[in-house]
Every structure is written in C-alpha cells, then in structure tokens.
Protein 1
Amino acid sequence: MVSPYGRTMLDKSNGCGYFNRIGQNMPKQPMCADNLFLLGELLQGAGEYVSRCRQSTQDEDRFMVELAREQIPHLKLALRTIERSLTELDGHLRDKLGIESKPSEGERKPERRYRKATSGK
C-alpha cells in the first residue's frame, strides 16, 4: 500500500510504520526542533486551561475550588523542572553550534538573601 506521500506503508506493529520507495527506514524520531515546536503548542494550550479555570471557578462549590488550588504547587514544580531542562538544553545546543554560552546563574551576581538595612525612622 502506498501513502499519498510516496512512502510504502507497512504494518505499524513492526515499530517503524513507513519505508521510503528505496526501502530504507524513515527516521523514527522527530527532530529536536519538532519536539520543541510541539512543546510550545502544548504550553499555549496549558495557558488556555488556566484561563478556563479562572472563568469556571465562579460556578464551582468550595470543595472543587480547594481541590483545584491543591494542584497549583505541583504545576509550579513542573514548570520549574521544564525551565531547568530548557536551560540545560540551550547550553547543549549552544555547545553543538559552537556558540559561547551565557554565564550560568552561579557566575552571575549573587542573589541577595536579606533586605538592606534601614534606619528604622
């Protein structure tokens, strides 16, 4: 069976699913740029879910609002993990391209942990 794209379609149970007309396996995994594009679309959809939540809470009972609120710390943790992973991936891609890396968080100005002293007046 031939797909409209000129590839010979096979039973997907073999793990690949497509061969080109020469008989070589087509790439099994999408490229990095494809994965990041899809991640961007996923995150845009996530923002829409947050907007829906904000609108729907007016009609929900207290229990459901509390249950929704319990999810926020888990979601914030997931976002921090994604941000850390993207920072590491950016460094990896910069190395691969031969681009000088930005200074890491540790090399930047240290974060102030205490407030400046005030006169108290």
Protein 2
Amino acid sequence: MSDLVNAISGKDGSAVAGETTLEITEWTYEPSIAAPKYASNLTQGHKVAVAAVQDGSGTITCPVTASGLVLNLGEVVDLALYGPINVSLTALITSHPITVDVNDGNPTMIAYSFEPRSKPVFSAGSSS
C-alpha cells in the first residue's frame, strides 16, 4: 500500500498551555541536536560528526481574539501538543510576530515561537 494512502492527518491537533486549551491553526516542534565535528589520525582526513546536546524549537499559531495576546514574551508554559505525534514539554515563549490583515488593519494571527525548558516527551497520537 502507498504511504500516501496511510498518511496521517494533523486535522485533530491541539495545544494546551497550562490549563488553557488554545485555539490554534497549527503547531510545529523541530527537535535538533548539536553535531560538533572533529578530525583525528583515525578519521582518514575527514571530520566526523558526533551527536551532542539535544535542543529544539517550535511555534504555535493562534488567531487573535478580542482578549488579545494569550501568551506573553518570557512566559514559561507547560505545553501539550496533540496530533499524529504528541509532544509535552515546558517551554519559554521567545517571540510572537503578528500577521496583520491589511484589508481592514486588524491583527489576525499570532505565531508564538518557543524554546524548550524541559526535555520533550514524545508519544503516539491520533491516527484519524
């Protein structure tokens, strides 16, 4: 069977900050690692990468409501991100660019960027 037939949708994704379920249009989390390189007499003239400290970053995109900002810069929140893969972590809000609809001048979307403050926990999510 084709992987396209078995592709998993993110349509049921959600995000929870503390006790508040956020209204979101999408979320992302990109785990990464530092990969320092070294060369030695045993690496045959090439640098070799070594998996080092884990890191990551992500975004939560929310529509703006009458109450305005839901999360503030520098705020530390417990996030539970649900979708085909669930991610739970404590995160620091690092930026929140606002996308403005020039048709009527109202801010319409805020993309909160965050950095992890704890090791993320990954688990299987919904497959619908």
Protein 3
Amino acid sequence: MITASVNVDEFNKSFTRYKLDLDLEIQPALKEQTRLLLKTVEELLPPAKRAQGVKAIRKDISKQFIDEQWLASGFNLHNAKLAERIKGYLKTHDYDAIKQIARDTGIFNNFRVQEFSENDIKRNNRGRIIQSGTKILPLNRTPLVEYRKSLEEHVGKLRAWCKNGYLKLGGKLPAWISKQEGKGYFVDVSGNPSKPFIELGTFLDYAKDVNSRYNVTQRAVDIRAKAMLLSIEKGLNAAQKKFYNKSR
C-alpha cells in the first residue's frame, strides 16, 4: 500500500461549507466530490496523452540502443542518398563506415554490435535508462522491438490506479487508460449515517516517487477545495437570482 502525506484541512472545510450552504445530502455530495478529486488526480498524472508516453519510452531506449530501421532511414535526416549509403553498409555489415558517418553528422560518437539483452540495460535509481556513450546496435532487431512494445503496453498504468473507484463513482476514462489494470483500492462507506467516508489508495510501488516529484495529490486536493468554494458562490448567486425574479 502506498501512502502520501496530504494536508486536507482546506478541502474538508470547503466540503463542509459546500454541503451546508447548498443544502446537500452527505452521501451524494461525498461521492461527487470524491469522483471529481479522482478525476483531477488522474488528469495531473503523466502522460497527458498516450503518444507522449510512447515517445518517452522510445527516447529512453535510444539512450543505449540503436534501431537498425532508424539507421536505414539515414538517421531520419530526410537525405535519400545518405540513407541508401547506410543501407548498403548494413547489407555488407560495414559498421565502421556507419560509425564514421554518424560521427561526421554529429549524431553519436560510437556503437557496438551485439545481441540484444535486457541485462545490458543500465538504469538510475528512478528506473530511467542512463545515457550511454557507446550505444548498442542489436544483431537482431526483433527482440528490441518486442521489448519496446512490451513497455508501450503499460502506458497509462499509472493514471489507471484510481480506475476501480473512479468508474464505480460514474467516472469515465480514455480507452488507453481504462484497459490497464487498476492498481488501487476503494472503500465506500458514504452510506454510514454516523461516520460516512470514502477511503482510497494505490498499490503501485513507483506511485509515491511520482507523487513526490509532481506533488499530484496535494495539488488535486487544493484544486478541488477552491472549486467547491466557486460552486458555492455560483449556487448561492443562482438561488438569489431565482428568489429575486420570483419576488418581482
């Protein structure tokens, strides 16, 4: 279970005012605000779009590995003649010639050719791949592509942590997020007349690191606290306007 220290004083004060000033029943009001809080948390978590997550994974992998397809394209420099030269060198396995072109174009300094292995991947303490001075060109491209696709399949996993509770409360998630397994817990005791509450959290081991870096939970709580005060203002103004029109 992952826990995070969050100051909810202002949120609780806003919720109490929200319920009393707008004369709302506790259970539907609590469920609505929990759903909106989860929506805010989910939207603050990275990536904003699946394409951004995929791009980040490919950029991470490129710190240590070279994709033969990228080489054959001429480093995506849109130079047809350069691409044809490199394709020719790949067919004859003239890697020294490719290295020289890479150095001449300033793309990278060096690479070595060997079989792809996940054991060769070096990461920092946050799990991100470390930039390598000598990159690896896998002899067989297929394992590298399969590894990359396996990582891309998990894009949206972090944002899906609240899936179980959010969907039960009537929320909707984009397909690329909802297909992920919800690694969170959700306890709804909002119907308890003496002490109504909703408890939620996540079991994702890296969620605490992400939350501390982006301050997601606290930001979401603060956003919703202010939003409730705005809802109160709008609700009271609407009621006052209705009363004024009726009394004329």
Protein 4
Amino acid sequence: MPIYIIATVYQFLDDHLKAKNMLEDLYSQINTKIDLSMEPYIQVTLANVWYPYDEEKAWKYWDKAHEFFTVNRLDTSLAIEYFNMGWTLVTHNKFEKLKDILGLWQKHIKNCKNSFHYQYIKAASEIISGKTASGLTRIRLLEKYFDGSFMWEWKKLYKWVSKQNIKSSLKTTYAYRSKVIESICLNEPITHNLQKLGKLTSLDLLLEGWSNAITTNRLLDSNLIEDYFNDFDRQEEFKNTLKIWDITCRDFSIISSYTSGKPIVINLLGNAEMYINNRKLTSRDWTSRKALEIFIYVLIKSWRHKNAVDKYDLLFDLWTPASDRIKACGDVRNNMMTRLRKIFNECDEEMLPKRPDDILFNWESGNYYLDIEHFVKDIKDAKTLLKKDQKEAAELKFKSALSLVRGDLAEGFEGLYLESDRAYFLSLKCEAEEILTSMQP
C-alpha cells in the first residue's frame, strides 16, 4: 500500500499533519480483505499522529491495534507499537502514561529489557521523571552497544536530550551528535554553523569520520573504529555495516606514514593531523589548540612558494591584539613556537629553526610529507595524462587525489588566512569529481 508507506515516512520525519491526513483518508477507504489485514498497522500509526490533536481519539486507535497484536501474538508488531507510542508520550512529557506503556511492554514481550528500543524509552522516561543522572547513564550504556543501526532514532534521542534540563556542556554534546548523525542519514555535510565541541570523545570522532566519509571519498579511518570498539568481533561487524553505506575502512596512519616513507607526515585535508616517526600527535603533544593553529598558519602561508612567514603578520592574523596587548600576545606566540620546535626534536630539530623576525618551515629538508602538495600534484598529473588520452592512468590519479580528502582544509579552524586556499582545494576536488563522472561509461 504505497499511500501507507508514504504516510509512515511523513510520520518518521515528524510531519504528523501530512501523515494524519493521508492515513485518515486511507482508513476511510478500507473495504477489501487485503485492506483489512493492514487495518491495525494503520490504526497504530494513526494513534501516534493523532495524539497532538486529540488524545482520546489516539488512544482508541491504539487500543484497537493493541488488542489485535496481543490476541494474534504478533510480538514484533507489539514491540514497534510500544516504542512508537512511547516516543510520542516522551515528546509530550506524559510520564504516567509512559509507565503504563513500559509495564505492558514487560508483560507481553519476553526479555524486552534486553532490547535497544525498551532501554531507549526507559532512559527518556527517567529523564522526564526527574531521574536525569539515571537516564543519562542508561544512554551511555546504550552507546556502548552502538553498532550503526537505528541511526534516526539516535538522532531524535540526542536532539530531545539536548533540550532537557541538563548541563550546558551536555546540551552542546547531544545537539552536536544529533546534527552529525542527521548529516549521515541525509548524506549531507555537517553544517558549518554547528557549534563544535571543545573535546571530542571516541564516539564523536567516529561519527564525524563516518559523516566525512559519506560526503567526501567513502573512506573511513579504521583507527576510529578500533578506538571506539574494544572487541574485535564488534569492529568487524561495524565495518560490515559500513559496507551497506559503500564505505571502505582503511588505516590512515599506515597510508599517511608508512607509504610516504617520511618521518614527518602532515595531513590538512580534513581535521589537521600530524605523525612523527609513525606516531600520531595528540593534544598532549600540542598542549594548546593555538599552537596547532600557528603551525597550520605557517604551512598555509608558505606551502606554495616555500617562503618564510613574518612573525608580526602571524600575530595580527591570529590574535588581532589591541595596541596595549601586542607584547603580551607576542610572548604567548614565542612560547608556543618554543613548544612547536620541541615537537620536531624527535626527528629533525632544524624543521623550525630559530629566526629573529620570521618563521620558516624547513621545506628543503625532504623529511616531510604534506597531503595538500600530493593532492595538487595528483590532480595536475591526472590532467596531463588525460590530455595524452591515457584515460585509465588519469582516472587512477584523480582517485588517488580524492582519496586524500577527508573534509575541508584544516577543518575546525576559521580565519581569513584560510579562505582562499580552502576555496582553491574545494574547487579542485569538485573539478576532479566532475571529470571522473564524465569518464564513466
């Protein structure tokens, strides 16, 4: 029944008015045996979409469907009915009715407490009843069994929790996860105006990586999966789930470090990351996000012409200090530069030599790999091969270039110094994708 399917999609997307009107029209037209077999399913959906308008009418529909499912022992349909009405009651803050639903769930469905959907509604009911800590703990326990399924349910739960009376930091975290999961479900980039989290958990990093994979090159760093899932079997199950989304898992640390053969590996096409002697640097190495931004600034300002970067340009671009704060900000900059030089001591202490008026990354050392350089080179080589009518080789080069893209240039950082290069790399990426599409038979 295509009308029923379309109506349930509207309900799924929370457009209850459209769903209600379509289902009412469909319900009034039931007159065949085939239609009658669908009647309880239409009734239970009507119960959910009618609830905001007429609670009494909604419960009448619900009771009829519930009687049919219990008499005929349709446990799967019953569980879906309990979950959908449970969520409707959650969104309308009806705790007493929620208790009744959870009681019926336990009565009619064996081992229901082990199910994701029961625990999901139970967590929300605890938050509504004022047992916020217990509800949030239950959500964290559910997250431990996250496997990539029920993504839209996760999106709705996180969005709802973010609007409850909880700490502002938690509100931000749950709102962020809701938006990232929405981007995964809708196959759209994460919105740029979304408030970024100060500290990303292994779950947040995994979700971000998944979102970036969907909207860029269909590649996900397998290290993100291993960081979140301790159990090997669960890692493999999650990788199989990602295959449904046409996402391939690859070890980015091996791709970045071992294949380049360089002691210093810098990746800027996405979240900025750096490896020294095959070890990925963490926040402990940088000690400050500003230190990482200084390093990104130096690279962006000099990668094309291998030039030195003026210290005062850096100071005013990253701090824009008032006249009475120039010396203080300059001292902070100098301290961070000292920290940056120490980072490179592991492999080459001359990568950022001390200079009085400017900062120079040692481009001539040959000890580094920088993904943006290889990206540009691969695109250029691909175009040259295409002009020579070497289409297969050109296609491989274009794909090689796109495989380096994990997101926007230095994603998570903003500033005028980034805008032109960010637009440049985005235009190259789009051009490569268009050429690849045109090459398909």
